[in-house]
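Human:
Take a look at this sequence-structure pair and walk me through the tokens.
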Amino acid sequence: MRRPLSPLPTWALAAALGLTALGCGHGTSAGGRALDAREQARAYLDANKPEKALSLLRDLHASAPDDVDVARALTEAHVKLGQADAWISELKQRLASQERAVDQYMLGLALFSRAKDAGAPSVTAFERAIALAPTVGEYHYRLGLARLESEQYADAVPPLRHATELAPERTGWRLPLAKALHRTGDAPGAVAALGTLVRGGATPGEVVTARALMDQIADPFAGFPKAAEPKLEEGMRFLREQDAPQNAVLCFEEILHDYPDLAVVHALLGLAYQRLDDAGRAMDEFSQAIERAPQDGKNQLYLGELYLSRQRPDAARAAFEKAVNLNPVLDLAWFRLGDLNLDRHDLTAAREAFRVATVLQPDAVAPRGKLALVYQLEGDYAATERELRRVLDKDPDNTEFSLRLGLLFTEQALKSRRPEERKKATGEAEQWLGKVLETQPDNAVASRALQQLKGQ
């Protein structure tokens, strides 16, 4: 039985024309300031008003003709207006009189938006752009995407890899590189690219795609014998739905009698023994799963959880570190690493682990709260406040985080040496602590903090 896999999203038009360097908003930025022309153009495009963006982008392109972000947005506006054919004709006329890299680049983007030209014609345009400006990472990236969409996986790897070398800060470019590497059989390279992606701060959409790709790279049910599928399904029902691990053990052992090298069944058997509190046999099964599928990070995660339940933190940390190296989208392993490093007072390692956990689970409260705690222990009050407010913005009635924010401002007020800063922090602290006491009048921590403020 093969578990159904989430299909990878198409990289086509959105990937080719997606703009990343222009701001967003309508009229004003998130901070309340007026948008500049770039940001306003991006806002119009995001609001599906390309006709308003076009004049702004033409002026921006005239003043900065080699700006690839503006060039990409200008092409996006033409395509959204249904003017791809006319734009292609205009670009070809320009190129006939003078060949410039940015015009070849825009031609490639415009051609890529048309199904009939998304293959060789767009590839040729991007190749010409690179020949004219070989140090522009964006051109290599778009060539790699075009080849990837044309299923030229081996040919897509070099330009995508070169693009990441030219612009290492563009961690999102590792995602198509990982897909191309996977398609060419380089699973370790693909995993390494995904690791760089999540450590660099992937967007929620990129995380979804990375998880789907990782499921393909390390599919534990790949090649599973069809004859054993009914017994596997029965065992998994016992384990997951009916809470009958002993019956699950019998099913999994029956499968292993006929197919002793199925790593996923050893892992499931280990989970069943762990549920029965038989740590020794669980350890043996997890070890056998790791031996048979050393590339599967989930087996290291299971082993780490077992070590953790047996109060063996050093062994657990080593297992979790192996888990995230083999499968960098395992958010639980990152969270566990954060906790274990926090227990060791290794704040740098804890911060990194919790930060990646928040990238993988941007709406989860627990990793966000732990990351805020690390920032506070490091004395970074601004970062602590930012993380706490991110939770409260989505859940204003979260009493725990209201209290934590109140205590943060209390700490700032008590430590501040400047009267104006102390006054501001005191006001914020009183506001948040008061909010806590409105819902929990007997909250001793909030009451004590208010008394400290009054006595300062």
